[in-house]
Amino acid sequence: MPTTLRKLRGLLRPLKITATKGTIKSKFAAAIAPHDEYDEAEARKLMRQLGQEPDALTCVYCDASADTWDHVVGTVSDGEFTGVGHRLRNLVPCCSPCNARKGGKNWGDYLDGLHQPASIRNERADRITAHITGCEEDSNKAWRNFPEYTQLQDKRDKILKLMEEGDELAETIRKKLQAAAGKKRR
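Predicted structure:
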């Protein structure tokens, strides 16, 4: 995507430390998310079942060349761990634009929003559905009862609170810098 003057606008404003709150929450969830060990033979088998050529992966949503992986079912929903993790059946090849646009949306809703011919959309949906079978969100959510989970959430919340305090300090410093710059101009 080419650089435009409009993108410059985003750089000409105060940045917020707390703008990364979602990333922090995701990192805490990802740290406890279950994961599979890498098994190339299993990964190749699953990619073929997904209709992919393992050595030339394409985006499961739009068929562009894949350059990343998407967690079909996110590890985080509304800032909380879902119980789904980094499993071979929860990861699909994806292009960066689709991965960014999909974000935390439901994969089926995202696929429907691409306005592809029904036959293509249905074929892709069927393949993804078959691929992710068995990695739905953990409705049990037993981890919520672990004292360590509560401790981890407390640590996360303390970090987020410190970030908010950092934003307040940064605002104070910016105001003082502006005031000092105004005095120098006089």
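Summary: The first strand starts at residue 68 and ends at 71.
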